[in-house]
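Need tokens for this chain, all 657 residues.
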Amino acid sequence: MVLLVRLREALRVAESDPELVRSQLQAFGRQIPLLYFILLVNTMAVAATHLTSAPAWLSVYFPAALGALCIVRCLHWWRARHRPLTLESAPAQLRKLVWLAGLFGVAFSTWSLLLFPYGTPYEQSQVAFYMATTLVGCVFCLMHLRAAALLLLSIVILSFATFLVLTGYPVFIAMAIDMTLVGVALAFIIHLYYRTFSGVVHAQRELEASQLKTQRLSDDNFRLASIDVLTDLPNRRSFFASLRALSEQALGAGGGFNVGLIDLDGFKQVNDIYGHASGDLVLQEVGLRLLRLAEPGIFFARLGGDEFGVLAQHKMANETLVDLGQRICHALSEPYRVAGNVAELSGTIGWAAFPEAGTTVTQVFERADAALYVGKESRRGTPVIFSTEHETRIRRSSLVTQELRHADLEAELYLEFQPIADVLSQRTIGLEALGRWQNPRLGAVKPEEFIRIAERTELILRITEVLLHKALAEAARWPEELYLSFNLSAIDICTSARARRLIEIVQASGVPPHRVSFEITETAVTRDFEQARCSLTMIKKAGCRVSLDDFGTGYSSLSYVHRLPFDTIKIDRSFMTDVDTNSASKKIVKSVLDLCLNLGLECVVEGLETASQAEVVKALGARAVQGYLFSRPMRASAIAAYLQAALEPAYEVAAQP
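Here are the structure tokens for all 657 residues:
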């Protein structure tokens, strides 16, 4: 019973494993020509020797029909040899082959048994030999199809062995026994081969699965290495790889391309006001908007933070480049939904052309960055194309940077002081220290030029210390009622250690801390709000005063006033140019003055140049003022004379009509 179950299992097609079945059929397909060659050659040989001893229907027509059947099947295989074999069709195809193997076995066995009685003993031996060799050859050709091979083996062995035994001749009986034993051995070999073959198929499948998994992991690693996970844009590494490839291609073919750098304007405020999670949502939306603008030849990437890159792989005319830049800027300026609110941002783009702007990856990238910097300074929210003017700025900036690195700061840096006056008493109440640099090679360098470069290279830390020491040394000589106002950069308050260093310098100077007021711009505060608040709080606790400079020029000034320890707010000079003629400017100044009054803060109005302006701000409620109306910045040596002269009223306010 167990033997029958095993036999039935051996003759069954493995439909549960269609991939194995397909592998069987593919392997068998390579043996088909050999199979039909064996059948045709052996059959023709036996038929030829029996032409005179057997009837024509047995020696000619029957074998001819069998040969024709073999040729038809071989031609069918030839036409279908390149046809893809699917997993769904493989089991049905194998079942068909098993039935064909059975039919071929019955047909050829029947012909052999009918032919056996004719002829001499030699011819009968030839038939027996034909059956044995043909069977062995066909079984080995069908080795990959276990069910077909075993079915063919069973049909031939059982029919022919039974026939030989029934003849009663000892020699034929011996042949039948020998054939049966060989058949059993062949069945065992078929089983072992099939098990080995299926094991190889399964091992290959596992190997392919492992390779697929490895490839998937490799693809994932490549994606992680090349794609920004937040925006799904190519990352900085991918951008520069593409940039290098484009440059090599352009140099070889004599072509060119354009590089663009995009920076978001106002993104820092989103992070500070709504948190980094909301900032990430904004960056994701930026990524989606840029992807919608992508087209053949236009490649976007996220370089880090709120900076993005774009490659135009085919060089564009300036007009086309500006048009593309404006479309990008317009897309980025659309409102963003953040934490239930609407955030307004914009994007500035700097373009540079390869090889005109630079013949190396580094050069063309730096030129695009220079164009972006120009845009950030004066043309936010617009595209800027690198030009020779920018080249001049770069060279100047490089020269200033080199001179600043090697300068004798103690000897070359000096201060000028601009008074801060009380508009009611017309007395000086303090002086603002303004850093100046006189370089032997460059001459006088504008503060906005060297301070910007110093901040970018962090030389500002050394400059701040040198100037603060000089300013405190001068303040120690002033009357005690005067205070010193000193400007800080974002780098000066970027760490608590820096804040402590400023406090130590003040404490070592002998100037009481309450006579020292540190000014910081809102832009500097927004770089790292939490650290700025920590540093300014330390300075305030040490007894120094803290002022918010250039109030009204930032993005969210009011949101910082109540969150930072300010003592004073300085209204930016931009509101003073038309305060005596423009009602809007007047209302803004009045609002800020009222705000300071309500919050208990002092207010300094900067940029006064005419008595008319002074009269207006005085009427609005201002007391502390600063500007050319009272004095231009002066060297330290002129302060004593100025203070002596300032004992008398510095100006007369026009009489009321």
